[in-house]
Write a structure and sequence with these properties.
The chain is of the alpha+beta class. The chain has a single domain, classed as Nucleoside Triphosphate Pyrophosphohydrolase. The protein is 18% helix and 40% strand. A hairpin with a 2-residue loop joins β1 and β2. The mean pLDDT is 90.
């Protein structure tokens, strides 16, 4: 039997979630500090161990913006190699509806502020966008891409407390 310490490391992409939250022609965005520079993104982040993709999307939006959202549908899944860290990212993008805001809630470390921008204003940010998936997700939403939320099943295991 092979020594588990000598086994090759298994490749794993970064699994992330993001929410496209629209209010008329404006979209909820975050201004964040990444490697000493300002970048702009949808509310987004990594899937945590033991949570569903749905839970992660709602949690990340609240933590980064102070907005509570209700997921409406899945927009799509996008695969990309990050120019920031060079690793593969698999992103699940959701459409969400804002249902409440807590302006006094502290935002995640590195998040400067949440703001609402039009698609044109977002496109004008160019290289300051965290990734090309920002506009890709908005454009998929504008094109009417809708997958039911139950397209993503979640089977919690019994291996977590």
């Amino acid at each position: 039997m092979a020594d588990p310490k000598s086994a090759p490391e298994v490749w794993r992409p970064h699994v992330t979630v993001a929410c496209v939250v629209a209010d008329g022609d404006r979209y909820l965005m975050v201004e964040e500090e990444v490697a000493g520079k300002l970048a702009y993104n949808q509310p987004a982040g990594h899937l945590d161990d033991g949570e569903s993709l749905h839970q992660a999307a709602v949690r990340e939006t609240l933590e980064e913006t102070g907005w509570t959202v209700e997921l409406q549908h899945l927009i799509g899944m996008h695969q990309w190699r990050s120019t920031e860290h060079g690793e593969a990212v698999l992103r699940f993008s959701f459409a969400a509806r804002a249902v409440g805001h807590d302006p006094g809630r502290p935002l995640d470390t590195g998040i400067r502020r949440a703001l609402w921008l039009t698609r044109a204003e977002i496109a004008d940010l160019g290289g300051r966008l965290r990734s090309p998936m920002v506009l890709l997700s908005i454009d998929a939403w504008l094109a009417g891409r809708k997958l039911p939320l139950d397209s993503l099943g979640y089977l919690p295991g019994n291996d977590h407390p």
